[in-house]
Specification:
The complex is a heterodimer of chains A (about 170) and B (about 190). With about 170 residues, chain A is mostly helical. Chain A has 8 helices and no strands. Chain B is globular and about 55 Å long. The chains are: A mainly alpha (about 170), B mainly alpha (about 190).
Chain lengths: ~170, ~190
């Protein structure tokens, strides 16, 4: 169990303070009695302290001024949640749910439940005529609503882009 | 830790229209942001460009910061995504042990160390050089943990991973750092 890797893993947890009470006292006992653990602990602790005292890199002296000059060209954009209206999301979801339920109801209505004992499919797929769906007035209305919704979404997207461009100017 | 007004106090001034107050935020975090950028790109010019981009992005999206996390955690998330996007765009290779230039740099540092008396300052420099030899991901997680004042959970939030995964990755990163130090800075490590 006490492989080098295992010892190091447990010691790092101990050094980071991520040990539970029981494990902590076990490690403390090992550190008092075991020379290998003592040596490894000293080594890792030194690395830990060096990492803590390692230095951050500094950008050029003009950095803050450059950033301030850059942000002077912009304005703070409105919060995302203010331009994503949740009712649009609900509307799109409702549209798709209605469409799926509609097709399901229609499909189930076409099944001949009396022939359910037969091993063959109750619907003859070769005689399934798709053209009657797309000649139906209701389906045409459905498609039209879909197109209108699409145009509305496109309009909102273009308006958002225009607002962003105006804000950045 | 910073003295003076808290980040949230400064940010509320910025949100009320005091654009100049944002300079305080830039001063507070510029070193850390720049260091993280340098973990991803070897050139200081590129790192500075990325850092500037991060602060501009953070400023423009300030309304989206709802104060549910520390500002630094939110900012470092922007830094991480900006660095990754930059790398994807420029297809820059991150530094690794296989990089010849890095070997040369390590060797020169090594010989430099041998010539000088080993002091605390040079040990810190050695650690910084050893971090530079790590992959960007390893160097990033170590920097976030030791210099970013972030908890494991916050690091997980920044990197988009679970805190347990952070623990494992941090352990592996330190393991690799130790190996690099033993390999490239043998004389100094023996003094540890």
């Amino acid at each position: 169990m006490n492989t080098q890797q295992n010892i190091e893993e447990r010691l790092w947890r101990y050094i980071d303070g991520h040990c539970g009470g029981e494990e902590k006292s076990t490690i403390e006992q090992l550190l008092q009695s075991n020379v290998e653990w003592q040596h490894k602990h000293r080594q890792l602790l030194e690395i830990h302290e060096l990492l803590q005292s390692s230095e951050l890199e500094e950008p050029s002296l003009r950095f803050t001024r450059n950033v301030m000059e850059e942000i002077a060209k912009y304005q703070i954009a409105p919060a995302t949640k203010t331009y994503i209206n949740k009712w649009i999301i609900y509307g799109i979801s409702a549209f798709f749910v209605t469409m799926i339920v509609g097709f399901l109801v229609y499909g189930l209505g076409q099944i001949d439940w009396a022939s359910s004992g037969d091993t063959n499919l109750p619907i003859d797929l070769s005689k399934f005529d798709l053209s009657k769906f797309f000649n139906n007035t209701y389906v045409n209305i459905f498609m039209m609503v879909n197109v209108v919704l699409g145009l509305m979404l496109l309009d909102r997207y273009l308006s958002k882009k225009r607002d962003e461009r105006t804000a950045s100017q | 830790m910073h003295t003076g007004p808290s980040d949230n106090e400064v940010l509320s001034r910025v949100l009320q229209g005091d654009q100049q107050a944002y300079a305080e935020i830039v001063k507070r975090y510029q070193s850390f942001v720049f260091t993280i950028a340098l973990r991803y790109v070897p050139s200081r010019e590129d790192a500075e460009e990325i850092s500037q981009d991060c602060f501009v992005k953070a400023y423009r999206s300030l309304s989206d910061f709802r104060g549910e996390s520390k500002f630094s955690t939110w900012l470092y998330t922007i830094v991480t995504t900006t660095c990754i996007t930059f790398l994807r765009k420029k297809r820059l290779e991150t530094q690794s042990l296989d990089n010849e230039k890095v070997f040369e740099a390590a060797d020169s540092v090594d010989s430099g160390f041998r010539a000088n008396q080993v002091e605390q300052k040079s040990k810190i420099t050695m650690v910084n050089r050893a971090i530079a030899l790590l992959s960007a991901d390893d160097a990033h997680i170590i920097t976030l943990f030791y210099k970013g004042e972030q908890s494991l959970e916050e690091i997980g939030q920044i990197l988009g991973i679970e805190s347990n995964t952070v623990k494992v990755r941090l352990h592996r990163a330190r393991q690799r750092l130790k190996e690099k130090m033993e390999k490239h800075f043998t004389a100094e490590v023996s003094d540890l």
